[in-house]
Specification:
alpha+beta; six-stranded mixed sheet
Length: about 150
């Protein structure tokens, strides 16, 4: 099982815009960091993740899932070294979890959001995922496939 965190500036692409894309989802484009790209290349259909508002809000606001495997990023103007996945909204996090909340909790001291803050697509451990869901009031957290 794999879990992820996707960071987006809400004035560029918000959780509300992601939800509006429905079941079809949307490409997660514009990633120009090799580690983040490699994270997307490792993703599988059905992998779950958090949608995180960066710059404004600084909080986990929703849960998404991968609905299309890594493919050429349409915003890369034909540059073959950049890929993206498609993700779709699964559900809101009823009580958004702020970066401040995460940094204050020793359970998350090794979380990529704390240790690699600038990375736009990050791995999340199953333990981190389940605890953030619990803290955020997600009743039955959707799980990634085995």
């Amino acid at each position: 099982m794999a879990y992820w965190l996707y960071k987006s500036e809400p004035d560029v692409w918000s959780w509300e815009q992601q939800k509006a894309k429905g079941k079809a989802g949307e490409e997660w484009t514009g990633v120009r960091n090799y580690q983040a790209r490699n994270n997307m290349r490792a993703m599988k259909i059905g992998d779950k993740g958090f949608f995180y508002h960066s710059n404004e809000g600084l909080e986990i606001v929703g849960i998404v899932e991968v609905c299309a495997l890594s493919h050429p990023d349409s915003s890369a103007k034909g540059d073959p070294k950049w890929d993206c996945v498609d993700i779709r909204a699964v559900e809101d996090v009823p009580k958004p979890i702020t970066l401040k909340d995460i940094k204050a909790n020793p359970q998350f001291e090794k979380m990529a959001l704390v240790t690699s803050m600038r990375l736009s697509v990050q791995p999340v451990t199953e333990e981190e995922y389940l605890e953030i869901c619990r803290l955020g009031g997600v009743k039955n957290p959707p799980r990634s496939p085995d």
